[in-house]
Amino acid sequence: MTALLAQSSDAPVRPPAARSAAVWWAVPPLAIVLLVAVYPLIRVCLESVTGVGTQSSWASVLASEAFRDALWRTVAIAAAATLGCLVLGTFLAVVLAFVPFPGSRLVGRLIDTVLALPSFLVTLAFTFLYGTAGAVNAAIAGVTGDRAPVLNFLYTPAGVIAAEITFFTPFVIRPLLASFSMLPRAQLNVAASLGASPLRVLRSVVLPEAWPALTAGGSLVLLLTLNEFGIVLFTGAKGVTTLPVLIYTRGIVTFDLPGAAVIATVQIALSLTLYGVYRLVFARLMAQRGRASTDVAVEPSQ
User: Fold this and answer.
1) What pTM, to 2 d.p., does this model score?
2) Which of 89, 258, 272, 274 fits a disulfide with 57 by CB distance 3.0 to 4.6 angstroms?
3) Is residue 301 one of the residues assigned to a domain?
Protein backbone atom coordinates (compact mmCIF):
# COMPACT_ATOMS: atom_id res chain seq x y z
CA MET A 1 0.00 0.00 0.00
CA THR A 2 2.83 2.39 0.89
CA ALA A 3 4.55 1.60 -2.38
CA LEU A 4 1.39 2.42 -4.34
CA LEU A 5 1.06 5.74 -2.54
CA ALA A 6 4.70 6.53 -3.26
CA GLN A 7 4.20 5.73 -6.95
CA SER A 8 1.08 7.91 -7.15
CA SER A 9 2.90 10.77 -5.47
CA ASP A 10 5.71 10.47 -7.99
CA ALA A 11 3.29 10.77 -10.94
CA PRO A 12 4.11 13.73 -13.20
CA VAL A 13 1.92 16.76 -12.68
CA ARG A 14 1.20 19.04 -15.58
CA PRO A 15 2.88 22.37 -14.87
CA PRO A 16 0.71 25.49 -14.73
CA ALA A 17 2.71 27.04 -17.56
CA ALA A 18 1.60 24.28 -19.96
CA ARG A 19 -2.01 24.77 -18.98
CA SER A 20 -1.84 28.51 -19.54
CA ALA A 21 -0.24 27.92 -22.94
CA ALA A 22 -3.12 25.61 -23.89
CA VAL A 23 -5.60 28.30 -22.85
CA TRP A 24 -3.85 30.87 -25.05
CA TRP A 25 -4.14 28.55 -28.05
CA ALA A 26 -7.94 28.73 -27.67
CA VAL A 27 -7.98 32.53 -27.89
CA PRO A 28 -7.56 32.94 -31.71
CA PRO A 29 -10.45 30.63 -32.76
CA LEU A 30 -12.64 32.09 -30.01
CA ALA A 31 -11.89 35.60 -31.22
CA ILE A 32 -12.72 34.64 -34.81
CA VAL A 33 -16.05 33.13 -33.77
CA LEU A 34 -16.91 36.20 -31.71
CA LEU A 35 -15.99 38.56 -34.55
CA VAL A 36 -17.56 36.66 -37.45
CA ALA A 37 -20.66 35.09 -35.88
CA VAL A 38 -21.52 36.57 -32.49
CA TYR A 39 -20.81 40.26 -33.12
CA PRO A 40 -23.17 40.63 -36.15
CA LEU A 41 -25.98 38.93 -34.21
CA ILE A 42 -25.44 41.25 -31.26
CA ARG A 43 -25.49 44.26 -33.58
CA VAL A 44 -28.79 43.12 -35.08
CA CYS A 45 -30.34 42.66 -31.65
CA LEU A 46 -29.03 46.03 -30.48
CA GLU A 47 -30.38 47.69 -33.63
CA SER A 48 -33.83 46.35 -32.82
CA VAL A 49 -33.83 47.91 -29.32
CA THR A 50 -31.66 51.03 -29.63
CA GLY A 51 -32.38 52.36 -33.13
CA VAL A 52 -34.64 55.24 -34.03
CA GLY A 53 -38.28 54.38 -33.52
CA THR A 54 -37.59 50.89 -32.18
CA GLN A 55 -40.53 50.88 -29.78
CA SER A 56 -42.97 51.63 -32.59
CA SER A 57 -41.17 49.09 -34.79
CA TRP A 58 -41.58 46.34 -32.20
CA ALA A 59 -45.22 47.23 -31.67
CA SER A 60 -46.04 47.45 -35.38
CA VAL A 61 -44.16 44.28 -36.30
CA LEU A 62 -45.56 42.11 -33.51
CA ALA A 63 -49.08 43.39 -34.16
CA SER A 64 -48.95 42.94 -37.92
CA GLU A 65 -50.82 40.07 -39.51
CA ALA A 66 -47.99 39.54 -42.01
CA PHE A 67 -45.55 38.79 -39.18
CA ARG A 68 -47.91 36.34 -37.48
CA ASP A 69 -48.62 34.57 -40.75
CA ALA A 70 -44.90 34.37 -41.56
CA LEU A 71 -44.11 33.01 -38.09
CA TRP A 72 -46.80 30.35 -38.33
CA ARG A 73 -45.81 29.47 -41.91
CA THR A 74 -42.13 29.19 -40.94
CA VAL A 75 -42.81 26.83 -38.04
CA ALA A 76 -45.31 24.74 -40.02
CA ILE A 77 -43.03 24.30 -43.03
CA ALA A 78 -40.02 23.51 -40.82
CA ALA A 79 -41.96 20.94 -38.78
CA ALA A 80 -43.46 19.25 -41.85
CA ALA A 81 -40.13 19.16 -43.69
CA THR A 82 -38.34 17.78 -40.63
CA LEU A 83 -40.93 15.04 -40.20
CA GLY A 84 -40.63 14.12 -43.86
CA CYS A 85 -36.82 14.06 -43.64
CA LEU A 86 -36.95 11.80 -40.57
CA VAL A 87 -39.31 9.32 -42.22
CA LEU A 88 -37.57 9.26 -45.60
CA GLY A 89 -34.06 9.43 -44.11
CA THR A 90 -34.71 6.55 -41.71
CA PHE A 91 -36.09 4.38 -44.51
CA LEU A 92 -33.19 5.11 -46.86
CA ALA A 93 -30.59 4.64 -44.10
CA VAL A 94 -32.05 1.26 -43.11
CA VAL A 95 -32.10 0.14 -46.74
CA LEU A 96 -28.53 1.28 -47.38
CA ALA A 97 -27.21 -0.26 -44.16
CA PHE A 98 -29.08 -3.58 -43.92
CA VAL A 99 -30.49 -4.39 -47.37
CA PRO A 100 -27.58 -5.17 -49.69
CA PHE A 101 -28.27 -4.45 -53.35
CA PRO A 102 -26.09 -3.68 -56.37
CA GLY A 103 -25.18 -0.03 -56.52
CA SER A 104 -25.82 0.75 -52.85
CA ARG A 105 -22.40 2.38 -52.52
CA LEU A 106 -23.10 4.55 -55.57
CA VAL A 107 -26.42 5.63 -54.07
CA GLY A 108 -24.62 6.57 -50.86
CA ARG A 109 -22.13 8.68 -52.81
CA LEU A 110 -24.95 10.42 -54.66
CA ILE A 111 -26.60 11.25 -51.33
CA ASP A 112 -23.33 12.73 -50.12
CA THR A 113 -23.16 14.83 -53.29
CA VAL A 114 -26.42 16.56 -52.39
CA LEU A 115 -24.74 17.93 -49.26
CA ALA A 116 -22.22 19.77 -51.43
CA LEU A 117 -24.83 21.53 -53.59
CA PRO A 118 -26.51 24.86 -52.84
CA SER A 119 -30.15 24.55 -51.87
CA PHE A 120 -31.52 26.65 -54.74
CA LEU A 121 -30.26 24.10 -57.28
CA VAL A 122 -32.78 21.60 -55.89
CA THR A 123 -35.55 24.13 -56.45
CA LEU A 124 -34.28 24.77 -59.97
CA ALA A 125 -34.30 21.04 -60.67
CA PHE A 126 -37.84 20.81 -59.31
CA THR A 127 -38.87 23.59 -61.68
CA PHE A 128 -37.54 21.69 -64.69
CA LEU A 129 -39.22 18.49 -63.49
CA TYR A 130 -42.51 19.46 -61.83
CA GLY A 131 -43.11 23.02 -63.03
CA THR A 132 -46.10 23.93 -65.15
CA ALA A 133 -43.88 23.55 -68.24
CA GLY A 134 -41.68 20.85 -66.71
CA ALA A 135 -40.81 17.41 -67.99
CA VAL A 136 -43.43 15.55 -65.93
CA ASN A 137 -46.32 17.74 -67.03
CA ALA A 138 -45.10 17.54 -70.62
CA ALA A 139 -45.02 13.75 -70.44
CA ILE A 140 -48.51 13.62 -68.93
CA ALA A 141 -49.81 16.02 -71.57
CA GLY A 142 -48.30 13.81 -74.29
CA VAL A 143 -50.25 10.82 -72.93
CA THR A 144 -53.56 12.46 -72.05
CA GLY A 145 -53.56 15.28 -74.58
CA ASP A 146 -54.56 17.77 -71.89
CA ARG A 147 -52.63 21.03 -72.21
CA ALA A 148 -53.46 22.20 -68.69
CA PRO A 149 -50.70 21.23 -66.22
CA VAL A 150 -51.74 18.30 -64.05
CA LEU A 151 -49.07 18.88 -61.39
CA ASN A 152 -49.23 22.39 -60.03
CA PHE A 153 -47.95 21.95 -56.46
CA LEU A 154 -44.49 23.47 -56.89
CA TYR A 155 -45.62 27.02 -56.17
CA THR A 156 -47.47 26.09 -52.98
CA PRO A 157 -46.29 25.26 -49.45
CA ALA A 158 -46.31 21.60 -50.47
CA GLY A 159 -43.73 22.35 -53.16
CA VAL A 160 -41.49 24.14 -50.67
CA ILE A 161 -41.77 21.23 -48.22
CA ALA A 162 -41.01 18.69 -50.97
CA ALA A 163 -37.91 20.64 -52.05
CA GLU A 164 -36.68 20.96 -48.47
CA ILE A 165 -37.22 17.25 -47.82
CA THR A 166 -35.22 16.42 -50.94
CA PHE A 167 -32.34 18.68 -49.95
CA PHE A 168 -32.16 18.09 -46.19
CA THR A 169 -32.81 14.33 -46.01
CA PRO A 170 -29.05 13.52 -46.32
CA PHE A 171 -28.51 15.38 -43.04
CA VAL A 172 -30.57 12.62 -41.40
CA ILE A 173 -29.13 9.74 -43.40
CA ARG A 174 -25.47 10.40 -42.60
CA PRO A 175 -25.76 10.28 -38.76
CA LEU A 176 -27.98 7.21 -39.00
CA LEU A 177 -25.51 5.36 -41.23
CA ALA A 178 -22.71 6.19 -38.80
CA SER A 179 -24.83 4.89 -35.92
CA PHE A 180 -25.77 1.71 -37.81
CA SER A 181 -22.11 1.02 -38.62
CA MET A 182 -21.33 0.91 -34.88
CA LEU A 183 -24.18 -1.48 -34.11
CA PRO A 184 -22.80 -4.98 -33.24
CA ARG A 185 -23.92 -7.46 -35.83
CA ALA A 186 -24.05 -10.10 -33.11
CA GLN A 187 -27.15 -8.44 -31.65
CA LEU A 188 -28.92 -8.68 -34.99
CA ASN A 189 -27.86 -12.31 -35.47
CA VAL A 190 -29.02 -13.28 -31.98
CA ALA A 191 -32.38 -11.56 -32.45
CA ALA A 192 -32.86 -13.25 -35.83
CA SER A 193 -31.85 -16.65 -34.43
CA LEU A 194 -34.50 -16.30 -31.71
CA GLY A 195 -37.16 -16.02 -34.38
CA ALA A 196 -37.70 -12.28 -34.41
CA SER A 197 -39.04 -10.88 -37.67
CA PRO A 198 -37.03 -8.21 -39.52
CA LEU A 199 -39.59 -5.59 -38.54
CA ARG A 200 -39.30 -6.53 -34.87
CA VAL A 201 -35.50 -6.52 -35.05
CA LEU A 202 -35.69 -3.05 -36.56
CA ARG A 203 -38.10 -1.82 -33.89
CA SER A 204 -36.51 -3.50 -30.85
CA VAL A 205 -32.79 -3.56 -31.67
CA VAL A 206 -31.86 -1.11 -34.42
CA LEU A 207 -34.00 1.98 -33.73
CA PRO A 208 -33.31 2.17 -29.95
CA GLU A 209 -29.59 2.34 -30.73
CA ALA A 210 -30.17 4.98 -33.39
CA TRP A 211 -32.20 7.42 -31.25
CA PRO A 212 -29.25 9.76 -30.50
CA ALA A 213 -28.30 9.96 -34.19
CA LEU A 214 -31.94 10.41 -35.18
CA THR A 215 -32.36 13.18 -32.61
CA ALA A 216 -29.20 14.94 -33.76
CA GLY A 217 -30.11 14.73 -37.44
CA GLY A 218 -33.71 15.80 -36.88
CA SER A 219 -32.68 18.75 -34.71
CA LEU A 220 -30.17 19.89 -37.32
CA VAL A 221 -32.75 19.66 -40.08
CA LEU A 222 -35.29 21.57 -37.98
CA LEU A 223 -32.85 24.42 -37.40
CA LEU A 224 -31.82 24.51 -41.07
CA THR A 225 -35.38 24.47 -42.42
CA LEU A 226 -36.40 27.10 -39.89
CA ASN A 227 -33.81 29.47 -41.37
CA GLU A 228 -34.02 28.36 -45.00
CA PHE A 229 -34.20 31.22 -47.49
CA GLY A 230 -32.96 30.06 -50.90
CA ILE A 231 -35.53 27.33 -51.50
CA VAL A 232 -38.49 29.54 -50.57
CA LEU A 233 -37.21 32.47 -52.63
CA PHE A 234 -36.39 30.44 -55.77
CA THR A 235 -39.68 28.56 -55.61
CA GLY A 236 -41.53 31.83 -55.87
CA ALA A 237 -44.56 30.36 -54.15
CA LYS A 238 -47.31 32.90 -53.74
CA GLY A 239 -48.46 33.34 -50.17
CA VAL A 240 -45.50 31.37 -48.78
CA THR A 241 -43.76 34.08 -46.79
CA THR A 242 -41.46 32.82 -44.05
CA LEU A 243 -39.53 34.85 -41.51
CA PRO A 244 -36.28 34.88 -43.57
CA VAL A 245 -38.21 36.06 -46.64
CA LEU A 246 -39.96 38.71 -44.55
CA ILE A 247 -36.59 39.91 -43.21
CA TYR A 248 -35.33 40.17 -46.79
CA THR A 249 -38.43 42.08 -47.86
CA ARG A 250 -38.28 44.52 -44.95
CA GLY A 251 -34.53 45.11 -45.06
CA ILE A 252 -33.68 44.99 -48.78
CA VAL A 253 -36.86 45.72 -50.70
CA THR A 254 -38.57 48.35 -48.52
CA PHE A 255 -35.47 49.52 -46.59
CA ASP A 256 -37.25 49.16 -43.25
CA LEU A 257 -34.10 48.29 -41.30
CA PRO A 258 -35.60 48.66 -37.78
CA GLY A 259 -38.48 46.35 -38.72
CA ALA A 260 -36.09 43.86 -40.30
CA ALA A 261 -33.94 43.96 -37.15
CA VAL A 262 -37.00 43.20 -35.01
CA ILE A 263 -37.96 40.19 -37.13
CA ALA A 264 -34.34 39.02 -37.18
CA THR A 265 -34.20 39.23 -33.39
CA VAL A 266 -37.30 37.05 -33.16
CA GLN A 267 -35.70 34.60 -35.60
CA ILE A 268 -32.52 34.48 -33.51
CA ALA A 269 -34.48 33.93 -30.30
CA LEU A 270 -36.51 31.14 -31.93
CA SER A 271 -33.39 29.40 -33.25
CA LEU A 272 -31.55 29.65 -29.93
CA THR A 273 -34.59 28.34 -28.06
CA LEU A 274 -34.84 25.31 -30.32
CA TYR A 275 -31.11 24.71 -29.96
CA GLY A 276 -31.39 24.88 -26.17
CA VAL A 277 -34.29 22.41 -26.20
CA TYR A 278 -32.27 20.08 -28.42
CA ARG A 279 -29.27 20.20 -26.07
CA LEU A 280 -31.51 19.48 -23.08
CA VAL A 281 -33.28 16.57 -24.75
CA PHE A 282 -30.03 15.13 -26.11
CA ALA A 283 -28.34 15.35 -22.69
CA ARG A 284 -31.23 13.57 -20.99
CA LEU A 285 -31.32 10.92 -23.71
CA MET A 286 -27.60 10.21 -23.35
CA ALA A 287 -27.95 10.13 -19.55
CA GLN A 288 -30.72 7.54 -19.84
CA ARG A 289 -28.60 5.45 -22.20
CA GLY A 290 -25.68 5.69 -19.79
CA ARG A 291 -27.81 4.52 -16.86
CA ALA A 292 -29.21 1.68 -18.95
CA SER A 293 -25.70 0.55 -19.94
CA THR A 294 -24.60 0.67 -16.29
CA ASP A 295 -27.57 -1.43 -15.22
CA VAL A 296 -26.83 -4.00 -17.91
CA ALA A 297 -23.18 -4.18 -16.83
CA VAL A 298 -24.05 -4.51 -13.14
CA GLU A 299 -26.68 -7.23 -13.50
CA PRO A 300 -24.30 -10.03 -14.67
CA SER A 301 -21.88 -9.25 -11.88
CA GLN A 302 -24.66 -9.64 -9.35
Assistant:
1) 0.79
2) 258
3) no
